[in-house]
Specification:
Number of strands: 24
Oligomer: single chain
Structural class: alpha/beta
Mean pLDDT: 84
């Protein structure tokens, strides 16, 4: 009979089914069957990939079938057939290959074994039905009449063929069932196949359920997010949480953080994505991410390395301050030769008003860097520097990170103002937190408590300012390069006023330099008579006051004003300070001492009065313990040298000594007044006056040695301002003269003293009070042998 090779399909006896036929040989076989007795042999081919199967490409066991119907498919060469399986058959040989397959077919007999009893048949049929029932529960689209047929069928062979044709197993397994001629063995095979297929279906159901749950969850989230978008749009707040998180992720990828930082930020994004936008925690995470991503991680300004242009900018903005300017020029020169150098940390130390803060802004302009300033005065909480951890309500980054954010670049010039006025309490020590910030070996991985990601501060140019370097903790001071700025001389103040202060105040008060002119004599008179300071702040205030007075005149109709020295008392009032050189007369028991303060140098008079009494020593003038000890040491020294100094050797028994330092409301302390107290004591006890044109400073010992002191530049500047012509300083301070202003060295004679004999010989009106030879070393000015002290020393 004709043979049709089926691709992936197995037909069982008794099965009725329809399928499409497209191959020409198969169509020809169906047509041949219809033209004879409608019988043909259906057999599965071994591989579904074979298009033109031969005898070796098809199985040997198949089924004979009757063709019930053939339908022509519209618009196609194929046909749709309806067939009914009849009996198992075996292909004996292939007799024709074209135009269709034809071969000799023999029916297969039904085989039984000795163990195949009725009871065994019943047991196997029950097992198959039970398993098929379980299988049917897992296949929801199984027609109900299939179950009815399964439970109604009583014959084992037909039951096995019917079930095999209605379960979803691959065609190889179905072919194996078809080739089994023993009905009972077919039932056994079906039990195994149905059990396996049931387990597969259970796993599929479990997987499908999980997938469906996830799909439902995603659909639910998508639905809710879409609702939130609509709600946000309706409310007009424009907040889209999903887009916001995606923007955060995109920015993190663009900034190219290191692996650890990127992982932390992305995990924070995931955390924000899981939270409700209305949750307080979401606001914390959002603020944290916005702060981190707003920092200039990769933004850097290019330094201007034109040394001549930088020097021009610095000279234009500030007069003098050569040390600072030279140091900045050196920095630019080194950076020009070695661009990767790091670790510039300068500390400008000087009295108020000398331009420490303003020079920092000029340095930033000269270098082409962004400028940012931090005022550290009064800061007493370590979190001010390092920030607060973001777990706290209202937490924020520290001042360092805030300054970087404000600057907008990772290499600004950062001014840490008033670093000597940092406080500390139970909340921590901010100066200790600055140790890492100002250490060029550590600050490349500075971790703010809020940011929690290392930020590189090594590119930042740090400049700190202070009035008193002794108030800065030693470990912090060790990390900075100290540049001392001294007090301004009269000439420097004059030039600063002419070049900067006067034009600035005239413009600020709405006038021009054509409308108001201030004569040079008036400027010098303001400096001498209305100000007495190390810097220029009081001078600027007096100039501003003068401009206000002139503004009144201009407002009243005056077109042009010229301020002369004679007009100052009418405009500014009486002079506040008299010429001290007029009061520098020689007096008994009164000596000019030099002191250093945080606002510059100052000259103090030490007064001693000797009265009849019982040997009491009275110290007044708000003196500190160190100064009181210096006075006691001076008394002991004079007692040991009383006879040589022509002083009553019993003075400590029959005389009361009162030592007073004026300006009693101002606390005073330090050892440098030792020579001044001793000189006043000797003068008061001997009745010999002290030269009014001489000032002195130095610590003393009980044996009369003069020890070195600090603050020489400021002290000598105070002497110069006060009109002093001779300053006595310790011999060991001679190298420090290099730091003294040239103007001071040109107008003041310096005497270097190793012991008190030199001091007394130079300071007293009568130089022969000492029995020992003395030596005077004049500095920075020419001395001639006719000088009485020098002549006596040479003789």
């Amino acid at each position: 009979m004709p043979i049709v090779a089926l691709r992936g399909l197995v037909v069982f006896p008794g099965a009725q089914m329809h399928f499409d036929v497209g191959r020409s040989k198969s169509i020809a076989a169906f047509k041949a069957a219809m033209s004879s007795n409608q019988q043909l042999f259906l057999v599965a081919q071994k591989s579904v990939m074979t298009d033109d199967p031969g005898e070796d490409d098809i199985f040997r066991i198949g089924v004979t079938a009757t063709v019930r119907q053939i339908l022509k498919m519209p618009g196609d060469d194929g046909i749709r057939v309806v067939i009914e399986g009849k009996k198992r058959a075996k292909l004996e040989s292939l007799t024709r290959n074209k135009p269709y397959l034809q071969g000799e077919i023999s029916y297969c007999p039904v085989l039984f074994s000795r163990n195949d009893t009725k009871l065994r048949q019943e047991a196997l049929m029950r097992q198959v039905r039970d398993r098929f029932n379980d299988y049917a529960n897992l296949v929801p689209d199984l027609p109900p009449d299939v179950m009815l047929t399964v439970f109604a069928e009583k014959e084992a062979g037909r039951l096995s063929d019917y079930i095999a044709g209605n379960i979803l197993i691959n065609f190889e397994d179905k072919q194996a069932v078809l080739e089994e001629l023993n009905p009972y063995k077919r039932l056994q095979m079906l039990c195994v196949l149905i059990e396996r297929e049931s387990k597969i279906l259970q796993l599929e159901d479990s997987i499908s359920e999980k997938v469906q749950t996830q799909i439902d969850k995603n659909q639910r989230e998508y639905y809710l997010r879409e609702q939130m978008k609509v709600i946000s749009t309706e409310l007009g707040d424009g907040v889209n949480a999903e887009e916001e998180v995606e923007n955060f992720r995109r920015k993190i990828k663009e900034l190219a953080f290191d692996e650890a930082a990127e992982k932390k930020l992305l995990s924070e994004c995931d955390r924000l994505d899981r939270m409700s936008p209305q949750s307080p925690e979401s606001a914390v995470s959002r603020t944290y991410l916005e702060t981190c991503l707003s920092l200039p991680w990769k933004t850097e300004t290019k330094d201007k390395l034109d040394i001549k242009a930088a020097r021009k900018v610095l000279d234009k903005d500030h007069y003098g301050m050569e040390k600072v300017k030279d140091r900045i020029i050196e920095t630019l020169a080194v950076r020009k030769l070695s661009p990767d150098i790091k670790g510039q940390i300068l500390c400008l130390v000087g009295p108020p008003g000398v331009g420490k803060t303003s020079i920092a802004r000029s340095i930033a302009t000269a270098m082409g860097r962004n400028y940012v300033r931090l005022s550290l005065g009064g800061v007493h909480d370590e979190a001010e520097i390092r920030g607060h951890r973001k777990t706290y309500i209202g937490s924020m980054p520290g001042r360092i990170i805030n300054a970087i954010q404000q600057a907008g670049s990772n290499n600004p010039l950062m001014l840490l103002d008033e670093v000597d006025k940092l406080g500390n309490d139970y909340k921590g020590d901010p100066s200790s937190a600055l140790l890492e910030v100002l250490d060029s070996e550590q600050n490349n991985t500075f971790r703010d408590h809020y940011i929690e990601i290392p930020f590189d501060l090594s590119r930042v140019f740090f400049i700190t300012t202070a009035n008193d370097a002794s108030m800065i903790p030693r470990p912090l001071l060790d990390r900075m390069e100290i540049i001392e700025l001294g007090s301004y001389t009269h000439e420097e103040k004059f030039n600063i006023a002419k070049r900067h202060l006067i034009p600035k105040q005239i413009e600020r008060h709405g006038m021009s330099t054509k409308m108001i002119k201030i004569r040079d004599g008036a400027v010098r008179a303001i400096i001498d008579g209305y100000t007495r300071e190390a810097g220029c702040r009081s001078l600027e205030r007096e100039i501003a006051k003068l401009c206000r007075k002139c503004a009144v005149e201009v407002a009243n109709g005056a077109e042009k004003l010229t301020v002369t020295e004679n007009m100052l008392e009418d405009l500014l009032g009486p002079k506040k300070f008299k010429d001290e050189s007029l009061s520098l007369k020689s007096e008994v028991g009164v000596t000019n001492g030099l002191a250093w303060t945080a606002v510059g140098g100052d000259m103090l008079k030490v007064e001693v009065l000797v009265l009849d009494g019982t040997g009491k020593l009275e110290l007044t003038g708000s003196l500190g313990d160190v100064m009181k000890e210096s006075a006691k040491a001076a008394v002991s020294f004079i007692r040991s040298r009383a006879e040589k100094l022509s002083i009553d050797t019993e003075f400590y028994k029959n005389k009361d000594i009162h030592i007073h330092v004026p300006d009693g409301a101002v606390p005073k302390d330090g050892p440098s007044a030792g020579v001044t107290i001793t000189t006043s004591l000797v003068s008061a006890l001997s009745g010999i006056p002290v030269k009014g044109s001489v000032a002195m400073t130095g610590e003393i010992t009980l044996t009369g040695r003069v020890l070195p002191i600090g603050g020489l530049r400021e002290k000598t500047m105070a002497a110069y301002r006060s009109g002093i012509s001779t300053v006595i300083i310790p011999k060991d301070n001679e190298p420090d003269l290099a730091e003294v202003d040239d103007k001071v060295k040109a107008n003041v004679r310096f005497v270097f003293a190793e012991n008190l004999d030199t001091v007394l010989s130079e300071a007293m009106e009568m130089p022969n009070i000492s029995t020992e030879k003395t030596q005077v070393i004049p500095a920075e000015c020419k001395q001639t042998s006719h000088h009485p002290i020098l002549a006596r020393g040479e003789n």
